[in-house]
Specification:
Shape of chain A: globular
Number of domains of chain A: 1
Largest sheet of chain A: 8 strands, parallel, barrel
Distance between the termini of chain A: 36 Å
Strand order of the largest sheet of chain A: 1-2-3-6-7-8-9-10
CATH topology of chain A: TIM Barrel
CATH architecture of chain A: Alpha-Beta Barrel
Structural class of chain A: alpha/beta
CATH superfamily of chain A: Aldolase class I
Helix content of chain A: 40-55%
Oligomer: homodimer
């Protein structure tokens, strides 16, 4: 069983691209032609919506396959669609994995011990059923978790890492504006709360460092704050950093590059709307419609690869 | 549209019982007779498990109806069962509401703005579909949320409170042992992090105080820490406190009573395993089996009512 960190770094290296495709499919992102076909095929609007989202996801995954190695479905958008959404999520994960992509479940779960265990089993693929059998509805490769409850809420996910070769990304410093309200509060030792979280993440990850030099316990660090990214990179030398905020949220490739190590490894950079809706980017204005979402996403994924690789090279030569 | 806080306090007063039935149905909690019947009716073990859990939930809700007014499904156990679990959750919520009970969705969600909005809409009952229609798969009355991302992750839930008459319970101080790791860290002003969270919860709740004197923005405060409960009660005079940890987690009725105001109002107390598996309590040992879960749960709910009411009275006479 290959540890998640080894699988992740190898997958990123194989495509030469640290970009993660975020799949946060609001129904309005789906081109009209797909929505109309689904509406004809399914009388129930929920089933039609889930089918439309699934076709959109599959075609998007096919389009960026070989250019992007990691995909991050945002659980909220699937849960919103009820039972059909749960099926759409499972099918999306399976399709990505059939293309050789790794799947990070963006669920941001955090709960007390037994409940965290139920979430870990549900998301990472070993749900116990009433007859004693075990089912993998969604067998994601890794999952995002919230640290507020401490190790009790994280341990069951760490156990799943060890048992199943999976990974965990703990929220350390998020990219949203109000992250400052609690994460940046100064503790009595003069350091911000997110550094205390980072120290714990380093502790939880230490026994889980694999051959590649990185741990299967990673950290979410918002690229909108490059100075913090540099500090956290130093506090977390063995944590793969999952960087949100690139593209639509406003962070540049140079901001994101602050999360990479001196060899240009150890981070992955999420882009959701800027890939899903690449057809709507200003640089294509006037020439593309939603129906061009596949070629636009492929072009944009290639542009992101160049953009990030160049920024990482600049950072290496600055160091 | 009656605000959630008014609805909640009226519902609790009508049964004279602040107990919340936590529905965290591990498959092994379900009596063998129900599991066997479901296994015969459904070839798919996942469908059989979800059907067994739904029958267990329904019968448990029927058994405590009129004694308990509030129910709190723990989302992890339903998500674990895939599409069938999503349906089981929705049917459980509907059944509770058909009995006049209020439903607090224990989902502990926390995410950035647009995603938090998707979660709020999903859980509180207004999912937008591809054809422009809106669906309520689960229309819970309130939901638990995690504060780590700050107001960005909470605002969409507050908007749903205002728009739909719903409620929110923000995690302030949880009942699990490792809550100390971050929630109890001392800030530079000498106060613990959970007090900073409590001050924000008071601020978010202030514009949402209804006729009963309480806000639709409540707080989760673990009863395993009664001294903290008293401090937080004072910091949060208008927040309904959702108290986990009573019963199986070890807190006593007197511990829980610290969360009530001088009139004996303003808190609800969760009991999950001690009601779901009341048949297994030592006080019934030798006399009951899992097949007696309904009468055992009803008796235990009545005992909890007496236990909590007496503890609240003791607290009132001490004050």
């Amino acid at each position: 069983m290959t540890p998640f960190s080894d699988r992740l770094l190898a997958a990123v290296e194989a495509v030469g691209n640290p970009t993660v495709l975020g799949l946060d499919p609001k129904p309005e992102y789906v081109p009209a032609s797909i929505r109309e076909r689904s509406a004809k095929a399914f009388a129930d609007p929920a089933a039609a919506t889930a089918a439309a989202v699934l076709e959109f996801n599959r075609r998007l995954l096919d389009a960026v396959s070989g250019i992007v190695a990691v995909v991050k479905p945002q659980y909220a958008y699937y849960e919103a669609l009820g039972p059909d959404g749960a099926r759409c999520l499972a099918d999306t994960i399976r399709h990505a994995q059939s293309l050789g992509m790794l799947v990070i479940a963006d669920a941001k779960r955090g709960d007390i011990g037994p409940t965290a265990e139920a979430y870990a089993r549900a998301i990472l693929g070993e749900t116990p059923l009433a007859d004693g059998s075990v089912r993998a509805f969604q067998a994601a490769d890794a999952v995002t978790v919230n640290p507020y409850l401490g190790i009790d809420g994280v341990q069951p996910f760490l156990d799943a890492c060890d048992r199943l070769g999976k990974g965990v990304f703990v929220l350390v410093r998020t990219s949203n504006p109000s992250a400052v309200q609690f994460q940046d509060l100064t503790l009595e030792d003069g350091r911000p709360l997110y550094e205390a979280v980072a120290r714990r993440v380093a502790e939880w990850g230490a026994p889980r460092v694999s051959a590649c030099g990185y741990s299967s316990v990673g950290a979410v660090v918002g690229a909108t704050w490059p100075q913090q990214a540099r500090t956290l990179r130093a506090l977390l030398p063995h944590a793969v950093v999952l960087v949100p905020g690139y593209g639509a949220q406003g962070a540049t490739a140079d901001d994101a590059a602050a999360n990479f190590d001196a060899q240009g490894r150890g981070a992955v950079v999420n882009a959701s709307r800027s890939l899903m809706c690449a057809y709507a980017l200003k640089r294509h204005e006037g020439s593309l419609t939603a129906e061009d979402f596949e070629s636009a996403a492929r072009d944009e994924a290639e542009r992101m690869r160049r953009d990030l690789v160049q920024a990482i090279e600049r950072k290496k030569s600055d160091a």
